[in-house]
Amino acid sequence: MSEPTPTIEAPAEEAAALAEAEARLHDAPPEAILDWMFNRYGTGVTLASAFGNTSDVVLIDMVSKVAPGTEVFYLDTDFLFDETYALIERTRERYTNTVNLQLFRTALTPEQQAAQYGEALWATAPDQCCDIRKVQPIYSALEGKQAWLTGVRRDQSATRANAPAVQWDAKFGLAKANPLVTWDEKRAWAYIFANEVPYNLLHDRSYPTVGCTHCTRPVGTDEDQRAGRWAGTDKVECGLHLG
Ligand code: SF4
Fold first, then answer.
1. Average pLDDT over residues 191-196
2. Regarding the domain delimited by 12-215, which CATH topology (the fold level of the hierarchy) does it fall under?
């Protein structure tokens, strides 16, 4: 059995401020949540993007306008789709002066991972694979930050149905906000088209969310948006957004 992840408690004043903000912003529009976060944490805010769903690209566009220069980080697992790498480059060009795009990845190459843990760790132990290639690099990405923004939305899956707008992230030890938490896919697409935001072209081919090549498949029209992630296993999250 694996050890439980240690948690980091919020300082009392921080916990109180976040509880008050969550009570007020639980169903608030993204602008209000972003406004509160940047007022409170300023340049201590970083935005996580996987370049794999509509929320990711909407938030980059919003942040580029309300807080130009904000750091946007992404994790390259070495197993991303070509379409995702292409989107990263299109985003870098589009927002070259308005967001600070930063890459994080594990030092363990896919070949070293195979030699150390066996071929296809994503099939034999996906939690371990995600921990190596996503969770550990994110500790580096969040080091020194006061708060992070993510694209989690309540409509994305049953496990996200009660996601807060603002919270303390006890796993990583900083504040966290989900500015698009009340939005749905239709609203995100309307924003993308209205603002001509670059998006992952796999969305046009039945991939509503896109992760690693080994763990993502297209979904049917009657399936949950995240049904194509780790299909055939009971895994539903990569370990970044639990708790
Ligand atoms: S999504 Fe799959 S391939 Fe990517 S890090 Fe997680 S288990 Fe590994």
1. 98
2. Rossmann fold (3.40.50)
